[in-house]
Recover the amino acids of this structure.
């Protein structure tokens, strides 16, 4: 197999590992379990990644480092991954400062969590609960948010 197919640069796994920060073992696991990319192979069987593969893997590495689960983001389009990275970068530039307790409604946190559960959006649920945990005490979070939320979904 030609290492330059259709003019697209090809990179061995050690180069991809260095560029993305992902270990070769993790790259192989993501390929096998989640089919995040499908590298071509050299005549000797070595994995060869395109520039687009490297870009996708770098984006996945970013969003996973930001706290998302690879199983939830592995099938996202390149455009959606780029949008998530941009959102994350904007959040780092201007992080949301938790509102003081008197302006944060426990019911508002609970409603946001219920909405995220209803939409089956674990990323949003995590965001709502993290922000809620910064705004209320642990007993309030447990008694007034988590328990009603779990009861509401039947757990």
């Amino acid at each position: 197999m030609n290492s330059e197919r259709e003019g697209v640069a090809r990179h061995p796994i050690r180069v991809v590992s260095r560029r993305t920060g992902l270990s070769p073992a993790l790259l192989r696991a993501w390929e096998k379990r989640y089919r995040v990319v499908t590298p071509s192979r050299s005549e000797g069987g070595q994995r060869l990644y395109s520039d687009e593969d490297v870009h996708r893997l770098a984006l996945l590495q970013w969003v996973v480092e930001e706290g998302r689960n690879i199983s939830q983001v592995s099938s996202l389009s390149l455009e959606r991954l780029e949008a998530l990275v941009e959102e994350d970068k904007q959040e780092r530039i201007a992080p949301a400062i938790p509102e003081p307790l008197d302006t944060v409604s426990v019911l508002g946190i609970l409603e946001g969590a219920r909405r995220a559960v209803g939409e089956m959006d674990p990323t949003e649920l995590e965001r709502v609960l993290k922000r809620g945990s910064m705004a209320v005490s642990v007993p309030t979070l447990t008694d007034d948010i988590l328990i009603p939320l779990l009861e509401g979904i039947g757990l």
